[in-house]
Amino acid sequence: MIQDIKKEILYGLRSYRFLILFVGFLFFAMLDPVMTKFIMPEIMKSQVPGITQEALGQMLGTSQLAVMSAYMNDIFQIGSLIIAFTLCRLIAQEIRENTLVLPICSGKQFAGIVLAKIIVFGTALLLFSLIGALINYLYSGILFSYDLSIISVVRSGLLQGVYMVFLTTLIVMWGVIIKKPIATGFLTLASAFGLYFIGGALQIDSYLPSGLIKEASLFAVIPASTLLQTLSITVGIILVLIAVTLIRLKKMEWNER
Amino acid sequence: MIQVTELHKKFKTFHALKGITMHVKKGEIYGFIGKNGSGKSTTMNILAGLSHPSSGKCIVGEKDVSKIDHPSELNIGYLPEDPKFYPWMSAFEILDYLVSAKSNRTNKGRINEMLSWVGLEDAAQRHVGGFSRGMKQRLGIATALIHNPEIVILDEPSSALDPEGRSDVLRLITDLKQMGKTVVFSTHILSDVQKVCDKVGIIATGRMITEKPLSELIKENIVPIYDIKLKLPADTELTEKIKELEGITRVENINDMLSATVTDTDKDGVRLMQYFTDQKLAIRSFELRKNNLEDIFIQEVNGK
Ligand SMILES: Nc1ncnc2c1ncn2[C@@H]1O[C@H](COP(=O)(O)OP(=O)(O)OP(=O)(O)O)[C@@H](O)[C@H]1O
Ligand SMILES: [Mg+2]
Fold this sequence. Notes:
The complex is a heterodimer of chains A (257) and B (304). Chain A has one domain. In chain A, helix 2 (17-47) crosses helix 4 (64-87), helix 5 packs parallel to helix 8 (150-178) and helix 7 runs antiparallel to helix 11 (227-251). In chain A, 80% of the residues lie in helices and 0% in strands. Chain A has helices spanning 2-14, 17-47, 53-60, 64-87, 89-96, 101-105, 110-143, 150-178, 181-202, 210-216, 227-251. Chain A is elongated. Chain B contains 10 helices and 14 strands. In chain B, the strands form 3 sheets. A 6-stranded mixed β-sheet of chain B has the order 6-7-8-3-9-10, with helices on both faces. Chain B has a 4-stranded antiparallel β-sheet with strand order 2-1-4-5, covered by helices on one side. In chain B, helix 5 links the parallel strand 7 and strand 8. Chain B is elongated, with a radius of gyration of 25 Å. Chain B starts with a strand and ends with a helix. Chain A binds chain B through residues 2-3, 6-7, 10-11, 14-15, 97-99, 101-110, 250, 253-256, and chain B through 45, 48, 50-52, 69-72, 76-78, 80, 82-86, 88-89, 93, 96-102, 140, 143-144, 146-147. Bound molecules: adenosine-5'-triphosphate and magnesium ion. Adenosine-5'-triphosphate binds next to helix 1 of chain B. Magnesium ion is lined by residues 40-41, 81, 155 of chain B.
């Protein structure tokens, strides 16, 4: 298991996966406040001549809360996209290219291989979510004002991180089922966004992982009373996805063309 | 050690194995030969527990391959036809990673020993992504043997190897035999089979058509022809005289080489030799023509 984790860390570093993901978070964390402060008003002014400063403020939002909520949304939408396609090869490629054949013949257990992937990339994404939220807090604070409490920012960063662990597990499960990297990316996004819309439409967010994203973008001083329930359900779903992955791996035929 | 009975394998629409039966005894070196696409790799993948039989029984060691939860329960060493590695890892790191599956400690000594055994000690720290096909093959052999297994299954171990590498593989297989290991390997290089195998299995279109000890196979396929070279080239008169001898059915004289087809290799051989001695004809060479495995293989595959 330790060796599996070491292997995944090496993969993350040497294939630049960690770097790509981190830069993705960093990009939105730094750019979102700058966009809202400087670039968007200019664009709006050129599109709608004579627009008043108040109207602009209402449309774009000039509070730290508005900027940070927008950042959380960007990470959920575009960030998920980047993550899904950066990590879609995580296990699908290994099955397709037969790189798992020798490890399995040497006695590597499926659980170790799968858990190592989820632990390493889940932890990385959790860290990046937290760091991203803090950097965004810093920038939006400088450009607007520090309205939010650092505790709620840390909490939101961590909630987003837990959601990302769920997303990683989803990538691994689809990868094992479909064995094709690009299709894995699309199926992961379809199921992640699908759950989000269903949750919104039926108002059952607190029963779904997407509830974490909703809660995270509120930056509430006191978290919703259902938060613990949402967290436990998400952890439960992660465990189910891992179980499906392992069952599927156990039945798999290896070294196919 | 390995018992396969009536093994079938169907891929979606293609019936690849149509009843393979094979027996490999402990300590035996088993050569598995057959044309491209005859089903060697398919069979070996099943032996390694990586792919599931459609029907039939397959016992490897003491285990039934249909009843295991994980391929490594078979405790064999397996070299796939086209071994794949993580290109971003070094040869040393890969072996280190694979060793860790069965022991907790890094066994630096064992890894370096394996690397030098397959001639990769100088490339140990290089990333495998930059390895040539033959270097990957050598690393594959090292991975197959890293856990020191009792049964070793090698799918075309000498493919992509240079002449030295090929003879290294033969040396390695003989080493394994001396250690009492059981080895099954497939190859297209029949002279290699002739050099090291105890037993040969020939398969064609998913069926085992011949399975015999190598010596028996060769004996059965002896052609009853003596090739004789005399000191003085034979003339037509001598050729005619030999033809009249008992048991001789045909004599040819090509390039000063007399080729006599006989009915009974032992008796007629003695008679021929006797004739030359009686006639005081000096003999340079006197040989029973041997069919090589190549000929036998072509006969078996096309004849049945
Ligand atoms: N996954 C698969 N799906 C469909 N057909 C397959 C699959 N794997 C193998 N086959 C078919 O089964 C047959 C046997 O293939 P196999 O690889 O076992 O041959 P082989 O004897 O190893 O040949 P070679 O000497 O070229 O390595 C071939 O006709 C091949 O096309
Ligand atoms: Mg093959």
